[in-house]
């Protein structure tokens, strides 16, 4: 089931938006070429918000260390993070951004629980 998480106008190209209304929080990104993607917001290494990271093409770099995550697959490119994040399916309907949350278990960092 899809949930509305924000409106398209809430998003800024090249930036992420943390959504706290779902648990665990997710990060929604609008890429420079107009694509909307959603992944888990919490880095898998430590408690950092990926919405506050740096977006380049379809990868976001964690704001704390140098691991980057794919917005398309959730995979991580290099340590210190070792596990990827979940990817959530996004549908843009008019101005509404709808997300179908992954049913997989989240890869939360040590000490963080849902
Ligand atoms: S907290 Fe994200 S790579 Fe360390």
Overview of this protein structure:
The chain is mainly β. The chain has a single domain (about 1-100), classed as Rieske [2Fe-2S] iron-sulphur domain (Rieske Iron-sulfur Protein, 3-layer Sandwich). The chain is built from no helices and 9 strands. It has strands at about 1-5, 15-20, 25-30, 35-40, 55, 60, 70, 85-95, 95-100. The strands form 2 sheets. Strands 1-9-8-4-3-2 form a 6-stranded antiparallel beta sheet, with no helix packed on it. A 3-stranded antiparallel beta sheet has the order 5-6-7, with no helix packed on it. β3 and β4 form a beta hairpin. FE2/S2 (inorganic) cluster binds near residues 45, 46 and 48.
Overall 3D shape: globular
**Oligomeric nature of the chains:** single chain
Write the element-wise H/E pattern from the N-terminal end onward: EEEEEEEEE
Task: Using the 3D structure, state the CATH architecture.
Answer: 3-layer Sandwich
Total tally of structural domains: 1
Keywords: 2Fe-2S, Dioxygenase, Iron, Iron-sulfur, Metal-binding, Oxidoreductase
InterPro entries: Rieske_2Fe-2S, Rieske_2Fe-2S_sf
GO molecular function: dioxygenase activity
Domain Rieske: 3-99
Considering the chains and any ligands shown, give keywords for the structure.
Rieske Iron-sulfur Protein; mainly beta; three-stranded antiparallel beta sheet; six-stranded antiparallel beta sheet; 37% strand; globular; 9 strands; 114 residues; binds FE2/S2 (inorganic) cluster
Provide a brief overview of the structure.
This protein has strands spanning 2-7, 15-19, 26-30, 36-40, 54-56, 59-61, 68-70, 87-93, 96-100. The protein is an all-beta fold and 114 residues long.
């Amino acid at each position: 089931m899809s949930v509305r998480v924000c409106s398209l106008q809430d998003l800024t190209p090249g930036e992420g938006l943390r959504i706290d209304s779902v648990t665990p929080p997710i990060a929604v990104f609008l890429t420079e070429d107009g694509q909307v993607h959603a992944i888990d917001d919490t880095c898998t290494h430590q408690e950092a918000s990926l919405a506050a990271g740096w977006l380049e093409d379809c990868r976001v770099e964690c704001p704390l260390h140098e691991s980057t995550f794919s917005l398309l697959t959730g995979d991580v490119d290099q340590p210190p993070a070792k596990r990827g994040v979940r990817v959530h399916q996004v549908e843009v309907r008019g101005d509404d951004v709808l997300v179908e949350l992954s049913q997989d278990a989240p890869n939360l960092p040590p000490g963080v629980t849902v």
